[in-house]
Design a protein that fits this description.
- With 254 residues, the protein is mostly beta strands.
- The protein is 4% helix and 44% strand.
- It contains one helix and twelve strands; from the N terminus they run E-E-E-E-E-E-E-E-E-E-H-E-E.
- Strands 3, 5, 6, 7 and 10 form a five-stranded mixed beta sheet that branches. A three-stranded antiparallel beta sheet has the order 4-12-11, with no helix packed on it.
- The longest helix has 11 residues.
Length: 254
């Protein structure tokens, strides 16, 4: 691991005394290429003796998501309702990387200062759904509610042709949330985010008691797009139903 870059893990050379009795750790993210890492730059012992430090930021506290399902023309929706979104944040992890920022000083040469960037990496898995009412153009589009008591005991309910669409996907996360001037402050932030701090659940849902670091839904919508010859849809005349939105990372100012 590059000199000067500290994360929580076995063999780390920085550990505040008050955390000495805590054994849990966050593993170092894997490198993405031979001799390089897209987060840490070139690493010693892999063809270069000098560590290349990153510029700090920019900080990003949101992450967009999108998922699309295509339906045939006969089920093209007229209206939709009961939109739902569930998501999981357990695959997110936080670590600290050292970075440098050029700080201009009036009347003096510019000074390069070392800061400590908090980066999160992983993915947010989600399932989105909505209820749709299709255009009824012929008497050949059938169905609606069916009450079942076992597979062979079926009682038709309201035959209004309503149906539900579900879309499951994930969005990858690899971004800087915050930059600190102190390594200790950055490490404390990550301990809370990763659930290693005492009486803190780690990154959680917004309705989790005692949670200080949460992921909430900043926006969520359903978009309908008719497919034609100039689109990427599988069949002309079908309709793309897209669930899209944005997650928001929330954390204390200090």
């Amino acid at each position: 691991m590059a000199e000067g870059i500290k994360i929580f893990g076995q063999g780390m050379d920085f550990e505040p005394p008050e955390f000495a009795d805590e054994k849990e750790a966050v593993q170092e993210p894997a490198a993405t290429g031979e001799g390089t890492d897209r987060c840490f730059g070139k690493q010693p012992g892999k063809g270069d003796d000098e560590v290349i430090l990153l510029a700090c930021g920019p900080c990003e506290t949101t992450k967009s998501f999108c998922c699309t399902v295509t339906v045939i023309e006969e089920f093209a929706p007229e209206t939709f309702s009961n939109t739902r979104l569930v998501y999981d944040v357990s695959e997110l992890a936080c670590f600290v990387e050292e970075c440098q920022q050029l700080c201009p000083v009036p009347g003096c040469p510019d000074v390069t200062t070392t800061f400590y960037a908090v980066r999160i990496r992983g993915c947010i898995e989600f399932i989105a759904s909505a209820e749709f009412l299709p255009f009824i153009t012929t008497g050949k589009t059938c169905g609606g509610l069916f009450n079942t008591n076992g597979c062979d005991d079926v009682t038709p309910g309201e035959q209004d042709r309503r149906y539900f669409i579900c879309c499951q996907s994930s969005t990858s996360v690899d971004q800087v949330l915050k930059v600190f001037s102190s390594r200790l402050e950055a490490e404390l932030f990550c301990r809370r985010f990763n659930g290693l701090a005492v009486s803190n659940p780690g990154v959680s849902c917004p309705d989790t008691p005692t949670a200080t670091h949460t992921v909430s839904v900043n926006s969520f919508c359903v978009r309908l797009k008719e497919c034609g010859l100039d689109t990427d849809c599988p069949d002309s005349g079908s309709v793309d139903i897209t669930f899209c939105g944005e997650f928001q990372f929330n954390f204390p100012d200090s």
